[in-house]
Amino acid sequence: MKTTLDILYKDMLIEWRARSRTVALLSFAYTILLLFAFAIGPDAAALRHHAGAYLWLGLLLCSTLLLDRSMRIEFEADAVSKLLLVPVSAPGLFYGKAIANSVQLWIVGLISIPMVIVICDATITEHWAWLVLTIFLGGAGLAAPGTLYSAMIARLSGRQLLLPLMLFPLVVPVVVAAVKTTSLVMLGDPMNQAGSWLVLLGCFNLIYWSLCGVLFGRVVEA
Amino acid sequence: MNVRWETYLGAVGFLMLLGAHYVGLFVAPPEAMMGDVGRILYAHVPTAWVGLLTYLVAFIAAIGAMLTGKAKWDALVEASVEVGLLLNVLLLIQGSLWAKPTWGVYWTWDPRLTTCAIMVVGFGVVLALRKQIDEPARRLTISSVATIVAFVNVPIVYMSVKWWRTLHQNFSSPETVDSAMVTPLRVAAFAMLFLSTAFVVRRWRLAVAQLTLEFDGPDLPAPSAPLAVED
User: A179 CB near a chain B CB, below 8 Å?
Assistant: First the structure.
């Protein structure tokens, strides 16, 4: 637990010292939302209807930049080998980095909500806490497999291409559940379906966080 | 001539497949709702069953490879993922051919279809990763991890018709299928199983030979003298 907190503190400190990177990530999310709006055109109803999808596609694209950078700093000067020699336990390292990545995705997600409301003319018709919970579970669902995969390909030359290629198919259930819940919160949920989608999101998180935590040790040792 | 057992198994599987498809196409009654279009089930359903089974073999092999670090398990991962991928692509093609006359489109964003398409990419990435990594021990670990993670999608594919409202048919059983259709379906399923086993074993033998050389083979000798640069 202490290792996890130490790694989390280290990663958050690195991000705090290079705040421009977080700003760049937010700018990227903003640009993606604008591009979706430009691509759809002046159809306000379509924009409003698909606002949840744009929010999560923006977050998904941002996550690839974030995850690649997060693991690159560990592998660039072979810092990961030194960390393991300290010794830092591999699960502690994984959970520390995955939580740090989740926190950054939560920040980008939460700041993107007002952007979506403004750009897509979306409204929040259900309780806002559902949306925060969706961002929490969805961000975590992207971060856990993303952290594992970014470690797997950190030493490969084509990692910028491989990461989305590997990550996107794997996180489709997370994205589908997150988009569905977000859309229900924004457009209305007369059948009370949001809860069951959130349970599904929680189940995927449980699978990914446990499975990736077990496998991460093998990956960094390799 | 040294003929391996999988060659006989493959030949038996091929002959059974021909027989099952003959019965399926010309003897078995047409499907009650879809008519003759429904006859594709004798090819489509066995491909799906054996495809998922092949991925299960890949998953078990990946766990074996990670626990033992042996090239033989790694070779089984490579062989079963390749054959599984082939069956998966065949499955999508057969499904699209059936979907056009039945649903009016080759492709629709149905949960079963979508999860099957995701499975192609998930396991395709395993093969792409294997090509990217030269060091055998690292390749074994990384591709095993990727296979285990990709396998998470397989139960989702199987259960998708239960979990989501889907256009795709729900699970069938001998009770829900006419007895005249059950026999050719079963024969086709075993035929596909034998044929795929033959492919996996043959590919496994090739991979074992290649990987054993990589794992145990000597490093390339260093150049005896530096290259001379002429003025």
Answer: no
